[in-house]
Design a protein that fits this description.
320 residues; mainly alpha; globular
Length: 320
């Protein structure tokens, strides 16, 4: 009799548990399937594709061992090799310029906004507005401003006549400077938002203790604020290192596939090559090479990113 009553109590419990398990399975089925197909499946296919080549005669993919990897280092032709070298130089230069702007200007500006200095509200609007508007909208505004408004203002105010703005200049250095200003301006608001968020987590008692010890505003910034936002700085630095290999510097937004080789980046090179391969009559001729190129970039990016993260964690300041 007691066994029958126990069985009756267990049946509703197991039914309820099965329903929860079924609900959980249904809810997780779609995201898990997406990860398996669009992450693991795509990356596995790219890995396999890097060791294959397309045979035009048979119309099939054949095993090519390291042939695609050799093409990456030797280049399909002189232009491709030259563009990769320019891409490495410009990607590194863009990283260090962005890092200098983020650390040298981003942290002090964020501290000023956090301290609510006069005019901080206006700075918020100016710096956060690019994050609200579409990138395409901002690129159109920036292009019209630099290519039409600036030359006209220089002519009207200072009687200086220039043929064009930096984005359409004939000098690659002027084009690169114009592109870098746009990229720094577009990313500045995000950095500021992260820095101010980190500063908001600083305990008020820590700042009060620093004031009691006689610390002025500069000493509080160096010994309290900077160590407190150091983890955020580490994150931005390491993410930036990974971005060296994939950042196309918004060149595709301004020039599509027509940007000059001298201003190309690694991200733009592989972005443009993939776009052109998709437009080609037979994309299979270029996809194995691009897969090998991506794997090589990953082999460089992964140890650099992880190594820099470990280094920053060891040498970083600590709150005093």
């Amino acid at each position: 009799m007691l066994a029958r009553q126990t069985d009756r109590k267990l049946v509703p419990f197991w039914n309820k548990k099965r329903k929860r398990l079924l609900f959980y399975t249904c809810m997780m089925a779609l995201p898990v399937t997406q990860v398996l197909i669009f992450y693991f499946g795509v990356n596995l296919n790219s890995l396999l594709l890097a060791f294959q080549k397309y045979d035009v005669n048979t119309g099939t993919m054949q095993f090519a061992f390291l042939e695609n990897f050799k093409r990456v280092f030797t280049g399909d032709n002189g232009n491709a090799t030259s563009e990769i070298l320019y891409g490495i130089r410009n990607s590194l230069l863009a990283y260090f310029i962005g890092l200098a702007a983020s650390l040298g200007l981003g942290v002090p500006f964020a501290n000023a906004i956090y301290k609510r200095v006069p005019g901080s509200g206006l700075f918020k609007v100016i710096l956060y507005l690019p994050q609200v508007l579409s990138l395409v909208v901002m690129s159109i505004i920036y292009m019209n401003f630099t290519e039409e408004a600036v030359p006209q203002l220089l002519n009207d105010l200072f009687h200086i006549k220039i043929a064009s703005g930096p984005l359409s200049a004939r000098q690659p250095s002027a084009i690169f400077a114009g592109i870098m200003f746009f990229n720094v301006f577009m990313g500045f608001g995000t950095n500021m938002l992260m820095y101010t968020g980190a500063m908001s987590s600083v305990s008020p008692s820590t700042k009060e203790a620093a004031k009691v010890d006689g610390a002025n505003a500069w000493q509080e910034f160096i010994h309290v604020t900077v160590p407190s936002v150091w983890p955020t700085m580490c994150t931005l630095i390491t993410v930036g290192i990974a971005g060296i290999f994939v950042n196309q510097l918004n060149l595709f937004t301004f020039y599509n596939t027509g940007a000059t080789v001298q201003v190309s980046s690694l991200g733009y090179y592989i972005y443009k090559a993939t776009y052109r391969a998709n437009q080609a009559a037979n994309p299979n001729l270029q996809f194995p090479y691009l897969s090998a190129f991506g794997i090589i970039m990953t082999l460089f990016a992964a140890p650099l990113t992880l190594g820099m993260r470990k280094l920053l964690e060891k040498v970083g300041p600590r709150p005093e």
